[in-house]
Write a structure and sequence with these properties.
binds zinc ion; 335 residues
């Protein structure tokens, strides 16, 4: 039974419309790519097909590593995810905390219509989820301890829809906790204020806004098809080419376009970069010490070694800071 479940866990993501990699979304991405290449890049259908299914991309060492990581991480998720904090635990905890606040009244929101509650809840969950993804992604680049993990995603030298799974398992845990916290926060507050009228607007079980994003080619963000949006739209939504630029090795593209769906966060917090023609982009990370980014050692062990180094440096900075303060106090006392 466990072996059967284990086998299913490898393919279930392709059959679940709540997941980015659902086959239906991949087909939509294919149709959009074909449309783009035919009508905007003026390629023939045959040329467009060979561009989309470019062997150099799909059979590259980098893409093979993506698959390797996908299978290993699925195994990891299968055994570890039952142990992780879930949104229900977070929601129950927060809900109980809200009940303890005497000046807050749960009945205050009951007068509003059910459709208002459902639409507001659906949008809040989507916005909160997208915003926290932006923040955590930004931290992943900012703090050396987290960058040690996130670098695994950035060592991809070719992008395919599977690259989204090219993450270190510890980064996976960080993002699961983010998700549990975000969902739990939204559920607890809405249930507290609006009771049982809270529900999501869904299509095939997925939040309607997430569904729309995925139908509109979310999988092309990790691909070699550099679809660019109109300049004004790239302030609102991250185009495939904008995320591809996030993977660029060029220094002028560092720390740009952290957004998952919305570009608004990048715009507001100053990390937005409009897309450029992606044919000129080189993807990956620049490091002198490791030439092979595609080995199991580089993908799984080295991030933990780097994380340990970053932690040591961080602790050393704290110790030095405390020493400086103590010396200052001593000097003041002696004066
Ligand atoms: Zn990143
Ligand atoms: Zn990416």
């Amino acid at each position: 039974m466990v072996i059967q479940d284990f086998g299913i866990s490898f393919i279930e993501l392709f059959l679940d419309p709540r997941k980015r990699i659902y086959l239906g979304y991949l087909l939509c991405a294919f149709a959009i790519a074909l449309f783009w290449l035919k009508f905007f890049k003026k390629l023939s259908i045959a040329q467009a097909f060979s561009k989309i299914f470019d062997k150099k991309v799909f059979f590259s060492t980098s893409s093979k590593s993506d698959l390797k990581v996908y299978f290993i991480n699925r195994m990891f998720t299968f055994f570890i995810s039952p142990l992780l904090l879930t949104q229900i635990i977070v929601a129950t905890f927060l809900f109980n905390q809200l009940l303890k606040i005497e000046w807050l009244s749960p009945a205050s929101g009951y007068a509003v219509s059910k459709s208002f509650v459902v639409i507001t809840y659906t949008s809040t969950v989507f916005l909160l989820d997208d915003f926290t993804k932006y923040i955590v992604h930004r931290w992943m680049h900012k703090f050396p301890i987290l960058w040690a993990l996130h670098k695994v995603h950035h060592t991809a030298e070719q992008l395919t829809p599977i690259t989204i799974f090219r993450t270190h398992p510890l980064e996976g845990i960080v993002f699961s906790l983010r998700s549990a916290f975000t969902q739990g926060l939204a559920i607890s507050f809405f249930f507290y204020f609006f009771g049982s009228s809270v529900s999501l607007v869904t299509v095939l079980g997925a939040n309607v806004l997430v569904f729309a994003f995925n139908v509109c080619g979310s999988n092309l963000r990790h691909s070699h098809i550099g679809i660019q949006y109109w300049s004004w739209l790239e302030y609102i939504l991250i185009s495939p080419a904008q995320h591809q630029l996030h993977h660029s090795i060029a220094e002028e593209h560092y720390d740009k376009n952290f957004g998952a769906t919305l570009a608004v966060w990048d715009w507001v917090f100053g990390s937005l970069h409009h897309s450029i023609d992606t044919d000129s982009l080189v993807l990956g990370v620049k490091t002198e010490d490791v030439n092979d980014h595609q080995s199991i050692y580089s993908l799984y062990i080295l991030p933990i070694v780097d994380m340990g180094e970053a932690m040591k440096e961080f602790l050393w900075t704290i110790v030095n800071f405390r020493l400086k303060i103590t010396q200052k106090v001593k000097r003041r006392d002696n004066a």
